[in-house]
């Protein structure tokens, strides 16, 4: 039986989003010793180039993801999380974010993940993201790996 995954754009502070973002932070902390929240603090400046989504199956929130602006034509993928592996939740979220990114004028998406996070690195490579030089605060971070994808 195929389950339908629905995607909804919400504010990251929405009470529906908080349990899944907390689950993501908990998962990251257990696996890598850091919850990733520090790179999610400047999102209070909500604007039209910012997108945060939750994924839902039936009445259960099963994933989340976001894009934040780096420039007028470049967005950064953040807070990607799927509660259940290999259910196409992450791919559904990422596809939605890529489509939305094009609609709001992004020509390129970039992102960072931990080198240790083999699931994520394989996921992004299967989604046609290419390894790029570390950018921004990740430039000298030897635990980080960065990816980019041209959308045009």
UniProtKB/TrEMBL annotation:
It comes from the Bacteria. The lineage of its organism: Bacteria, Pseudomonadati, Bacteroidota, Flavobacteriia, Flavobacteriales. Keywords: Transferase. PANTHER family: GNAT FAMILY N-ACETYLTRANSFERASE, LD18367P. This is GNAT family N-acetyltransferase. One of its GO terms (molecular function) is N-acetyltransferase activity. The keyword Phosphoprotein does not apply. PROSITE patterns: GNAT. Residues 5-152 form the N-acetyltransferase domain.
């Amino acid at each position: 039986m195929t389950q339908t995954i629905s995607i909804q754009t919400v504010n990251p502070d929405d009470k529906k989003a908080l349990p899944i973002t907390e689950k993501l932070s908990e998962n990251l902390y257990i696996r890598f010793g850091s919850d990733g929240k520090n790179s999610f603090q400047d999102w209070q400046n909500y604007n039209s180039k910012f997108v945060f989504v939750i994924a839902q199956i039936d009445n259960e929130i099963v994933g989340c993801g976001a894009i934040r602006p780096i420039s007028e034509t470049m967005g950064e993928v953040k807070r990607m999380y799927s509660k259940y592996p290999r259910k196409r939740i992450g791919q559904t979220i990422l596809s939605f974010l890529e489509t939305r990114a094009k609609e709001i004028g992004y020509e390129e998406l970039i992102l960072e993940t931990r080198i240790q996070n083999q699931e994520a690195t394989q996921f992004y490579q299967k989604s046609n993201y290419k390894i790029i030089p570390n950018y921004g605060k990740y430039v000298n971070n030897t635990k980080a790996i960065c990816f980019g994808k041209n959308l045009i």
